[in-house]
Amino acid sequence: MKFLKNKYQVATAIAVLFHIIGLVGILFFDAPFFISITPLNLLLMFVLILYTQDKINLPFLLFMGVCFVVGFAAEVAGTSTGLLFGQYAYGKTLGSGFKNVPFVIGINWFVIMYCCGATVHLLLEKISAKLTQITGAPAPAIRFFSIMSDGAMLAVFFDWVMEPAAVKLGYWQWLGTGEIPTYNYLTWFIISALIMTVFHCLNFNKKNIFAVNLLMIMMMFFMLIRTFL
Fold this sequence. Notes:
- It is globular and about 55 Å long.
- Helix content is 73%, strand content 4%.
- It has eight helices and four strands, in the order ααααβββααβαα.
- It has helices at residues 7-28, 31-36, 38-52, 58-81, 104-135, 140-168, 182-201, 209-228; strands spanning 88-90, 97-98, 101-102, 172-174.
- The chain has one domain.
- With 229 residues, the chain is mainly alpha-helical.
- α1 (7-28) packs parallel to α8, α6 packs across α7 (182-201) and α6 (140-168) runs parallel beside α8 (209-228).
- The protein has a two-stranded antiparallel sheet with strand order 1-4.
């Protein structure tokens, strides 16, 4: 374990290990069992984010709360009316909840939004460093719109990758024809843009390389599930 030099590497190694175990278990061994422990895996990823987050302060906790409340409320409204995302229903895989929406979905919204925000923040930081050498520091408005729009687009792309895999895993099912409505992704973009605005405005440490790694790990996991399951 000497090659694990910091907490980001430790957390990344744990995330890779558990996603590999889950992937192999689902594809080659006892799929129902490994799918049933999805909430535990999600909770572990949540704990790893807290472990790697520098200086957990009030703004960070506020952002976490916003993700949970806004995400969970949107899901309740979505499943109850079908107006936001389309006609869909959650299965029993993700555990108990409220109004047929599992509580762990609120945590899922936080994990996705935080990872997308941290990824765009890191990329923007690198781009800003280059631009500063050439033209001076980028205008605050440019940074704001980059975080908001690019973070939201990344979240929508993640949802596009996840959707078919989530259906195969029994997380939720699309009703009617089973097709995913196009406006599902439009709604995802709008809600994600609002949350990314909060992400940008609140003053907490947004540099977390583990969050970037976790986003790539989850994307790879769902891509392999949608391809081979």
